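User: Look at the shape:
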Amino acid sequence: VCSSDLDDVVAATSLGVVARIDAATGDVRWLRRWPAPIREPRTASPAWQLPSPVADGSLVAWLTPDTASLVGFDPQDGRTLFQLAIGVDTPYGAARTLLLGPDLLYAIGDDVVALDRRDPTRVVWALSKQSATEVRLRGEVAMGTLADGSPALAVPLADRLLLLSPRDGRSEEHTSELQSPCNLVCRLLLEKK
């Protein structure tokens, strides 16, 4: 993961290593080891939900290889800021991938759960709690900007695409009968950041 806020690369392995690497020289700025999983992850993840870190100038967030914990690191020195147990029986859900916004950290798996970056134990909103129907994600959730300049969280479902306000998870716009991704993007005028 490259971050313009860091001018570095943050990388993780499936064996429990997270590192910040100088993009210009390849020098390792910090490296943290986590216990390697001794069994397969609890759930199989589609290709777009591989647990890679997300980073900016104030936080590196990562899912451990066994998908049992969400860990936050200080991007400057790599010290652990928080560690949350995740799973279907927790308020954070069974996250398989992460997105990082200015104020929120999004844990994405079978649900989209927005966590407060200042206090990651606080759930700000969860799509499943706001939806009248069952949430069935179908593809990569992305942060983008609408044509009017407002931010949007694009959440593909089996039968439609939801454009959600990243702040509160409220639906901005719905489309039905998804066709080709090109037509969809053109119709929504959504630009990925």
Remarks:
- The chain has a mean pLDDT of 82.
- The chain is about 5% helix and 40% strand.
- The longest strand covers residues 17-22.
